[in-house]
């Protein structure tokens, strides 16, 4: 379970860093979006996450309180939704928008922001459930995994 959480943290940070690093260039070069609109488009997913992260956690907690899900199944379901949603939104972002229909990119980024939020009741919650007495050590390991992803994402993507 710890390796799964580390991989999930790595994947989450990798995709987030990828988006933050290369999205403005994609908007400028591929969709021909002006600089001012580029900034607005780039911040969409972060603004969406401000509102949806707490909402996802509330939904997860309510499902556990009502006995619909246990801690393990809740973490697995929410993490699966997170991973699949991020993959779908990035694929849609790559293939659906065009210079004439740049608004489609905004919809893809809204979906990306929402699905990123599912990771909070997913791998973040799972981490604290695994071994509460070692939460400090586990949190440090997660931060290391995330940092390695944030460092490697721009380097690996630049090679492509």
What does this structure look like?
There is one protein chain. The chain has a single domain, classed as Up-down Bundle (Growth Hormone, Chain: A), CATH 1.20.1250. Helix 1 packs antiparallel against helix 2 (35-65), helix 3 packs antiparallel against helix 4 (103-117) and helix 3 (71-95) packs antiparallel against helix 5. The chain starts with a helix and ends with a helix. The model has no long low-confidence stretch (mean pLDDT 92). With 160 residues, it is mostly helical. The chain has six helices and no strands. The longest helix is centred in the first third of the chain and has 31 residues, at 35-65. The radius of gyration is 17 Å and the shape is globular. The protein has helices at 2-29, 35-65, 71-95, 103-117, 120-130, 135-159. InterPro entries: MFS (IPR011701), MFS_Na/Anion_cotransporter (IPR050382), MFS_trans_sf (IPR036259). Its main location: membrane. One of its GO terms (cellular component) is membrane. This is Membrane transporter. One of its GO terms (biological process) is monoatomic anion transport.
Compose a concise summary of this entry:
The chain is mostly helical.
Features:
160 residues; mainly alpha; globular; MFS_trans_sf; transmembrane helix; transmembrane; Membrane transporter; MFS_Na/Anion_cotransporter
